[in-house]
Design brief:
268 residues, alpha+beta, hypothetical protein PF0899 fold, 2 domains, four-stranded mixed β-sheet, 5 helices
Length: 268
């Protein structure tokens, strides 16, 4: 078999030229396109990764903001609840205090009204009893009783001593007017003479006397001079008894302090 080396050489040259042409105009552009595509894909992947990272960061920040917001909401709600409970407690305490004060004032008012009523009834009864006693003694008094009262008065006058006698003697001695001798009935001459004798014997003969009638004495005799007085009369006994009863009623009318906790129940 004969080999045509010219043909073989021409074919080899054609193949070499084809390879060079393919490498120059086909393979290299394909490689460049592949490199460009890979670069573009890498850039897109990098952009995607960056976007994913940014999205993750934003999601984290959003979750953090949500957590902070939830915490703030919970804190505000807790604060509002505490303030509402505090205000509720304050209002309840104020209502309890107001109710207790009202109850205490009401009880004090009732006690005062009851005390005033008792005092009024007691005073009215006291006045009526002593008025009846005075009227009864006035009706029973007569001349014989006045004589006995005059004898008792002169006995007491002669029995004066100490400061009482000195004070009355000074008043009688310094009086510019005659001393007053008052009695419920007009004294007869013998009783007037007995009284004058007792005064002169006790305080001296220069003492001038003036006799007066005073029905309010009920029964008895009194001697007055410059604000000093010596007397024996039923009216004095009644007045002394009346003052004692009045003081007893006043002592009983002193308000008692209510026991602890008696100012009213607090509201539940």
């Amino acid at each position: 078999m004969l080999i045509d080396w010219f043909t073989v050489g021409a074919q080899a040259l054609n193949f070499a030229i084809l390879v060079w042409l393919m490498k120059r105009f086909l393979y290299q552009p394909i490689l460049d396109a592949i490199d460009a595509r890979e670069a573009r894909i890498a850039a897109e992947l990098a952009d995607a990764a960056a976007s994913k990272a940014e999205a993750a960061k934003e999601r984290t920040e959003f979750q953090h903001k949500n957590e902070v917001f939830d915490q703030q909401c919970a804190a505000l709600l807790s604060q509002a609840t505490d303030e509402a409970n505090t205000e509720r407690k304050r209002l309840l305490d104020a209502a309890r205090q107001a109710a207790a004060e009202f109850t205490a004032k009401r009880e004090e008012t009732l006690r005062t009204e009851a005390r005033n009523l008792n005092q009024a009834v007691a005073r009215r009864a006291q006045d009526e009893v002593f008025a009846i006693a005075r009227q009864a003694l006035t009706d029973l008094a007569d001349t014989g009783l006045e004589e006995r009262m005059c004898d008792e008065f002169t006995r007491r006058l002669r029995a004066l001593d100490g400061d009482a006698k000195d004070s009355l003697a000074q008043a009688l001695g310094s009086a510019a007017e005659p001393a007053n001798v008052r009695s419920a009935f007009d004294l007869p001459a013998p009783q007037r003479a007995a009284i004058e004798a007792a005064v002169h014997d006790t305080f001296g003969p220069d003492i001038a006397l003036r006799f007066e009638t005073a029905p309010e004495l009920v029964g008895g005799v009194e001697l007055r001079a410059n604000g000093q007085k010596v007397a024996w009369s039923i009216a004095d006994y009644l007045s002394s008894l009346q003052r004692g009863v009045g003081e007893l009623l006043k002592a009983q009318a002193v308000p008692e302090q209510p026991p602890d906790g008696a100012t009213g129940k607090a509201l539940p």
